Amino acid sequence: MAREFTSVGVVGLGTMGAGIVEVFARNGIDVVAVEISATALERGRATLTGSTDRAVAKGKLAEADRDALLARIDWQVGLDALHSVDLVIEAVPEHLDLKQRIFAELDRVCRPEAILATNTSSLSVTEISVATTRPNQVIGIHFFNPAPVMKLVEVVRTVVTSADVVADVEALCARLGKVDVTISDRAGFIANALLFGYLNHAVGMFESRYATREDIDAAMKLGCGLPMGPLALMDLIGLDTAYEILDTMYRRGGRDRRHAPVPLIKQMVTAGLLGRKSGRGFYTYERPGSPVVVPDEHTPVSTGAALADGARAIAKVGVVGSGTMATGIIEVFAKAGYEVISVTRGAEKSAKVCEAVKTSLNKGVVRGKLSEDDRDAALGRVTWSATLDHLADVDLVVEAVVEELSVKKALFASLDEICKPGVVLATTTSSLPVIDVAMATQRPADVIGLHFFNPAPIMPLVEIVQTIRTSAETAATARAVCAGLGKTGVVCGDRSGFIVNALLFPYLNDAVKMLEASYSTADDIDYAMKLGCGYPMGPFELLDVVGLDVSLAIQRELYLELREPGFAPAPLLEHLVTAGYLGRKSGRGFRDHTKR
Ligand SMILES: NC(=O)c1ccc[n+]([C@@H]2O[C@H](COP(=O)([O-])OP(=O)(O)OC[C@H]3O[C@@H](n4cnc5c(N)ncnc54)[C@H](O)[C@@H]3O)[C@@H](O)[C@H]2O)c1
After folding, report:
1. SS3 for 385?
2. Angle between the N-to-C axes of helices 539-546 and 500-516, in degrees from 0 to 180, rounded to the nearest 10
3. Residue 572 pLDDT > 90
4. Ligand 1 centre distance from Cα of residue 113 (Å)
5. pLDDT tens per residue across span 89-103
6. Quick one: pLDDT band at residue 309, thresholds 50, 70, 90?
7. pLDDT digits (tens, 9 = 90+) for 502-520
8. Pocket of ligand 1 (CB under 6 A)
9. Among 16, 18, 124, 517, fewest CB within 10 Å belongs to which?
10. 328 near 452, Cβ under 8 Å?
């Protein structure tokens, strides 16, 4: 029979601890909430009451339930108050010596049968456990931020944690309405091991001014469907905590350079810019602890007038290509009121593209998203052509032909001869250097990347890729065009993977390496990222959808351009591709799709 937990203790009521107290008290368990000082205790209490009051205001918690919840909490300064609890969860700052000191003290204060748990994100649970005389009763219970919301708990068992303790804690997680994954004691466990390399990389992009904070965050939210961008997430985690986690992962996790904290993080911590909890981190908040972002000196001016500033007028757009992207892009421009000339390599291809655009627009009508008149008007704006000469008087050309540099270069050289001066020439390439395409023309200042996402009519993001030769006027035009299409345009430099792929694929590759190392299963890794970090799909689900061959090709490009050893494609990914396991499209990838 599983052990009955009637009262638990929580030590440290900061970002995590206050949320963990709420989780227990909400589920009918008495909590002794402990802090180091009366001031810190008050702060913790204020965080918790703020959170429960918000839940009441939103109608998610009845007032009477809130009052009952609060009545279950005993607020105390000092560890002595924990003498009779069944379980303690420690959530103090991420320093090994501090945690070891607290565990030695808990060992002295708590009943001999009490379980002692740490919420550490990256430190060794084993090293913490040996500070006690009961390492077999020490375990990691890693909640996710915000603890009352995120469903996942990573249960970390060391080589000495007793099986009973693991089973009791798993049963407790179920009682709390959480989903647990039980794993061994490795730096970063599942979720943080996959998350923090990505977060650090995003901070590196910001530090090197590769893109703005707003654009990096918007790219990951809109391009991957993540609940928040990486810099906003760093602010939520707390930069001091994030620094310690990265530093520990670097030292414990094989000195992977991708975990060496980007210098800016340390500078911000030193300057007191800790994120939401201090009211300022990458963003500025209404007040310390508030989730509400307020404008500051770095907030871009995004009014229509400012966006159009310096932009050339665009009325007529040429779209070259006949594949999925070209078809979607024609639809996007036509619906937004632009006159479009579609150019393919023959009448037959033109007919196919025309049919595909019609089918897609008709779907919009059937779903009630588009009126018949608007559909007809959009189609009426498109001219179907099989010769590039028809692009002589367009204002913008969007190239979406096959992803081969020689083909794109030849096309841009032809466009250079055909198009009028002042035209903006855009490529939709997702992996080739835009500058190579630009230099195939005599007008590199007019060339830019417009990286649409698939399906273009639905995905709200466009990466605007500026080369070192792109003029400010061309970039302003691209921004205005994206706004005109109702898309969010994010501006970045001309580096492999731009923003989204450069941040996404190394994370997917890391998940494959984790599976290959037999640390966890594909199912648990997928759960961890969905339930712990709110990702819409787990890494293996996503890899099977994107295609393992496509993912491998992107990862190889990143590795070749950036020469980052940690970006080397996972051997397992290479083997699966060699074996023809390409994901959904071939019926089998990480999972077998023929049986579903
Ligand atoms: N922030 C996150 O997103 C996150 C997520 C999961 C796990 N964690 C882990 O949770 C732990 C706490 O992180 P946090 O972000 O909540 O930190 P935090 O800095 O927000 O809070 C730590 C709290 O511990 C208190 N404290 C310090 N010394 C103490 C002592 N001797 N006795 C009692 N209280 C003491 C501090 O006053 C502070 O309120 C860390 O191990 C961290 O790695 C953090």
Report:
1. strand
2. 120
3. yes
4. 25
5. 999 999 999 999 999
6. confident
7. 999 999 999 999 999 999 9
8. 11-17, 34-36, 40, 91-94, 102, 119-121, 142-145, 237-238, 241, 245, 277
9. 517
10. yes
Q: Whose CA is nearest to atom 18 of ligand 1?
A: 14
| Confidence label for 176 from pLDDT (cuts 50, 70 and 90) | very high
Q: CA 540 to CA 190: how far, in whole Å?
A: 14
Q: What is the pLDDT of residue 431?
A: 85
254 band by pLDDT with thresholds 50, 70 and 90: confident
Pairwise CA distance, residues 311 & 477, whole Å = 4
Which residue, chain included where needed, has tokens 């893109």? 211
CA of 150 to the centre of ligand 1 (A): 17
Element (H, E) at 75: strand 73-77
Q: What residue's CA is closest to ligand 1, atom 11?
A: 91
Distance CA 234, CA 265 (A): 10
CA distance 245 to 565: 21
Backbone phi, psi, residue 271, to 5°: -80, 0
- State the distance from the centre of ligand 1 to the C-alpha of 139, rounded, in angstroms: 17
Contacts 24+ apart (CB under 8 A), 327-330: 327/353, 327/356, 327/357, 327/360, 328/360, 328/452, 328/454, 328/455, 328/456, 328/457, 329/398, 329/400, 329/428, 329/452, 329/456, 330/357, 330/382
What SS3 state is found at 258? helix
Residue minimizing CA distance to atom 31 of ligand 1: 36
The ligand 1 atom nearest the CA atom of 43: 39
Predicted confidence band at 213 (pLDDT cuts at 50, 70, 90)?
very high
Position in ligand 1 atom list of the atom nearest CA 241: 15
**Ligand 1 atom with least separation from CA of 277:** 20
Q: Could you tell me whether strands 30-35 and 7-11 are parallel, antiparallel, or unpaired per DSSP bridges?
A: parallel
What gap in Å lies between CA 44 and CA 37, rounded to an integer? 11
Place of tokens 């068992």: 157
CA of 41 to the centre of ligand 1 (A): 13
DSSP 266-335: HHHHHTT--BGGGTBSSSEESSTT---EE--TTPPP--HHHHHTTPPP--EEEEE--SHHHHHHHHHHHH
Token digits for 86? Answer: 């069944």
Question: What is the pTM (predicted TM-score) of this model?
Answer: 0.92
DSSP H or E segment with residue 68: helix 63-71
Per-residue CA distances from 449 to 250, 433, 445, 491 (Å): 35, 9, 12, 10
Q: What percent of the chain has pLDDT over 70?
A: 99
Stated as kind and residue range, the H or E segment containing 184 is strand 179-184
Residue 490: what residue type? Answer: V
588 φ, ψ (degrees, to nearest 5): -150, 135
Q: How far apart are CA 249 and CA 257, in angstroms?
A: 10
Q: What digits encode the pLDDT tens for the residues 155-172? A: 999 999 999 999 999 999
Query: Catalytic positions, please?
Result: 121, 142, 154, 192
